[in-house]
Write a structure and sequence with these properties.
Elements (H helix, E strand, L loop, with lengths): L11 E12 L10 E15 L6 E6 L8 E5 L8 E9 L2 E4 L1
Parallel strand pairs: 1-2, 2-5, 2-6, 3-5
Antiparallel strand pairs: 3-4
């Protein structure tokens, strides 16, 4: 999934086996807060973050499942916040800034 429009983002992405790729590098500043949840049982999640949108991300993968990774990106960017909640039960989460 690649988009520059937050309205094109679903609230939830879920797959049993496979890969979810979110390319958000061209996402335009948001006019309202948006939350996106991504769940993969077995597989991978790859996220490319936007440069101009504040992002709060919590990621749990098979390595960090007991202690989720929580980080804020682009805090000084204008516009509303994108919240990403990502969980992979067996596999990695990769983040490109």
């Amino acid at each position: 999934m690649s988009t520059s429009d937050a309205n094109a983002l679903d609230e939830n992405y879920a797959v049993s086996n496979g890969q979810v790729t979110l390319n958000l590098q061209d996402l335009k500043p948001l006019d309202k807060d948006k939350t996106v949840n991504v769940y993969v049982d077995v597989g991978t999640v790859s996220v490319t973050l936007p440069d101009d949108v504040p992002v709060e991300m919590t990621a749990k993968d098979s390595v960090t499942l007991t202690t989720p990774s929580h980080k804020t990106y682009n805090e000084s960017a204008s516009g509303k916040k994108l919240t990403l909640n990502v969980q992979v039960n067996s596999g990695p989460v990769t983040i490109a800034e």
